[in-house]
Amino acid sequence: MTAAADFPPETDAPEAAGADDNETPAVADDATVADTPTDAGAAPAADDTAEAESAEPAPLAGDGSKSEETPDEAASEGSEAADVEIELVEVDVVEVVEDSEVVAVEVVGVAEVVEDDEVVAVEVVDVTVETGQSADEPWGRVDEDGTVSVREADGWRVVGQYPDGSAEEALAYFERKYNDLASEVTLLEVRHRRGGASASDLRSTARTINGKLEGAAAVGDLASLVARVAALTETLAAESATEAVAAREAVDDAVKARTELVEKAEALAARDPRTVQWKQATAELNALFDQWQSQQQNGPRLPKSTAQQLWKRFRDARATVDKHRRAFYAELDEAHKGVRDRKTRLVEKAEALAPKGEDGIPAYRELLDQWKTAGRAGKKVDDALWARFKAAGDALYGARIEREAADAEASREKIELKRALLDEAKAVGDERDIAKARSILTGIQRRWDEIGRIFPRDTERSLDDELRRVENALRSREDADWKRNDPEQKARANDMTRQLNDAIQKLEDELEAAKKSGDKKAIANATDALEARRTWLKALGG
């Protein structure tokens, strides 16, 4: 803790710092307040920064903030808690004087709470400390040789000497030392009332202040300060027990959370490298590491042995995943290298087919089949090689397209000729004489073939289909005519007609006889059989 005020050096032998003849004790009328600057006893050294700092009371014990081990091993073994320091940056002391005696001291202090070299809070302490002394019971005395003593329960205790000044100056100097101690005690009490600081940190500060109060070179009611610190320490002891339980629970929860991260990392490390999606796995492991760092920075500090054990497991899991990933990509790079060489050779062969034009397409198709089975060489390499391979194929197919375009231009006249032939072919269906229709169609087919093939192929197929329908219609007529005029079929039909006629004649005789006899059943049978034979005969054309 440093103060803006420049006090004389704190020592049991103030003469070592030199006498200050310019110090003027506070003088006021009865019940008046005299503002006494804190540097009144050190006016000649007001600009001496080093002397001013040496004159300050010892700093308050820092409230150690918790920080955990860093992810790397060295930091995890050597990390220590960051200190929280309370620094008094400005102190004003106002003495209340009655009958030329200081009966109270009002201390106004501005304190900065510093954590990791950054000011995180500013506290203003304004407290009036009753000196508790009167003209009958002074807390201090000054001997003729400048020796200053403080009154305690068991008598007077020498606190230092001030030989080069007056007795009032000597007492004022050591009373200011007391006021500094009182301000530290008050500041500690204020911090406890306001909350925010842990009880263990406040106890540490209280122990530091107690150390300053033991044999303090100051004049004032030191016993009351000790009692206040003792009372506060007793209160903080009970609060520390509660904090300790909560801290242990928080540590247990942190260990559990940290263990879950370790187990997830180990699960990633235990997976088969051949089945791992490495991009996703790397992202998952990085997320686990970010969570680890977040818990480390924001969570409670774990016991060193537990933290080191968990970190070792987590680090080993990360190392295993990294080893598998490197091995996978090394193997993949080697495979990509072989595929790249194969595809490069295919590209060179495809480019060599360019002079063949359309005739190189069959060979290019074979190369394309080999390309499909060659594997992958990495996205960038594959894209570059494929662009070259495709360009070689485009050149070959471009030659075909140019040839087909020329053929299509040359086929326009042929298309018109074939469409004219199709118009002539309509007469084939209109011709009743099958032989003459066949002759017309044969002439059309001969001229059709003489015209030759046309392009595009779709147009050629469309025209061929139309002519084929004419041919099929004529063939159907020829088949039907053949069936009607086939001698064998005619002979079979005549023989069937004769048999049916004979059967009809016989059934008619039987029907006549049944009618004469009146046999109704015989009449019905003969009638049905006769109708069936006549139907068959009609179907044969008889």
From TrEMBL:
Record's keyword terms, sorted: Coiled coil
Region (Disordered): 1-84
UniProt key word Coiled coil: yes
Record's compositionally biased regions (Acidic residues): 70-84
Source organism, top-level taxon: Bacteria
Coiled coil feature spans: 490-517
A Pfam family it matches: DUF349
Ranges of Low complexity composition bias in the record: 24-47
UniProt-recorded name of the protein: DUF349 domain-containing protein
Organism: Microbacterium ureisolvens
